[in-house]
Write a structure and sequence with these properties.
Chain A is mostly beta strands and 113 residues long. Chain A contains no helices and 11 strands. In chain A, strand 5 and strand 6 form a beta hairpin. The radius of gyration of chain B is 13 Å and the shape is globular. The chains are: A mainly beta (113), B mainly beta (110).
Amino acid sequence: IAGITQAPTSQILAAGRRMTLRCTQDMRHNAMYWYRQDLGLGLRLIHYSNTAGTTGKGEVPDGYSVSRANTDDFPLTLASAVPSQTSVYFCASSSAGRIDTQYFGPGTRLTVL
Amino acid sequence: GENVEQHPSTLSVQEGDSAVIKCTYSDSASNYFPWYKQELGKGPQLIIDIRSNVGEKKDQRIAVTLNKTAKHFSLHITETQPEDSAVYFCAASTWNQFYFGTGTSLTVIP
């Protein structure tokens, strides 16, 4: 079934540890996005990629990095996790950028202690 | 940047009644306005969208209206059913910016 997969589903992490959240899509979409979702704040864009080989910063990029080596994969890395990064993380993709339907993955629930 | 405000934050309606969720935006360049539904434990899913050259769009029990002059748009759900219970997010987008509202938790009481 076409769509977006994320891994892991959930993770508990000690502060200071490095963590990579994985995201893969099989729809051959050009654009991909990482959001964090916190209660009362909705979804906030962390980083995006308009096409393979390019990335950009969103609304809340500090403490996170991304790479886009190919069309399908868009991993999000926390170099040194802090408790304020406890959140639910969603990956999304779209065919034609921001003015197009975004398809979301099932999310990763991350807890940093 | 864009500022999208969404009201109300919570909404309870009786089954069969209508529900209305409203959003305002600040950037007059915004030209794409999608609505997403998020069920518990899942990612958001697009339910309807509207572009700036259209004032109203309807899909069965769901409709969206857009007033570009006043910079607000609304989601209307008629004949609500228990399966409509979820969190709904509006969003406003230009070609290079995309901002979500803070969400409305809708509960449909059987």
